[in-house]
Design brief:
Elements (H helix, E strand, L loop, with lengths): L12 H19 L4 H37 L1 H12 L19
């Protein structure tokens, strides 16, 4: 029995064309500007921005609370004046403590 030898004319051209078109479609889907890679990058960026927004919202809330305390809470204002600006009330005595190690 003789073996059948395939020549170029017996090649299944439709299968070759369809598989080439399918591979082009897959590559285009993955690496296009609107492809899957770009979609994952954008989702990652979106999650980062959401986290940053939440952080900034918390900071705004803290700043608003501090602003309200500076407007209406006199004990808080007094506390800041004593700590930051070293202020004292009338009639209070101030004692300075010298550190012998630093004085020359």
């Amino acid at each position: 029995m003789a073996r059948k030898v395939k020549n170029i004319n017996d090649t299944n051209w439709s299968l070759l064309i369809w598989s080439s078109a399918f591979m082009f479609f897959i590559i285009h889907l993955v690496f296009n500007d609107l492809g899957l890679v770009k979609m994952f990058e954008l989702k990652s960026k979106r999650n980062e921005l959401i986290a940053e927004i939440q952080k900034l919202e918390l900071e705004i809330i803290e700043q608003t609370e501090t602003s309200n305390r500076l407007k209406y809470d006199y004990e808080y204002i007094e506390n800041i004046a004593r700590k930051r600006f070293r202020m004292v009330k009338k009639g209070e005595k101030v004692y300075r403590v010298r550190d012998e190690r630093t004085i020359k």
